[in-house]
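Bit of a strange request maybe. I'm writing a small parser for structure token strings and I need a real example to test against, not something I typed by hand. Could someone generate the tokens for this chain?
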Amino acid sequence: MSRLDNINPAVFETARDREVLPEEEDDDVNDKIDAREVFDHIRNINDPEHPLTLEELKVLQQAHVTVDDDKNYVKVVFTPTIPHCSMATLIGLAIRVKLLRSLPNRFKVDVIVEPGTHAQEQAVNKQLSDKERVAAALENNHLLDVVNQCLSSQK
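Reply from user aminoacidic:
Good idea to test on real output. This should exercise your parser:
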């Protein structure tokens, strides 16, 4: 069994599911993608070390999701639970993959670490912003299995 970075993480209350409005279900209405919709896609990503979601660990918060539908841009800022989290790149990769699978491909997606919250913030951000590194990571079957486990509805 591997050693956990954060043996006893703080667990936070999650946001309630939002009410889906009739116009949101109407395919004839062109509604813009907003921060809440993006957050709903990523809030239930599983933490790679604990049987908790990234929302429950406050790694993800709706307030840290920025969307500009007109400019086809999404930015997600995530906060690792500890400054030396060895899973930060994996968490960022899981967020990126979930959004690439969930959003129309017209969107440019940036996933970054909250400034000042991780000892290797620049290195993690560099890896997550490099399309070639992300593509290479996803060609690694073991890593892809771990990402898919984070994205599954149950661990």
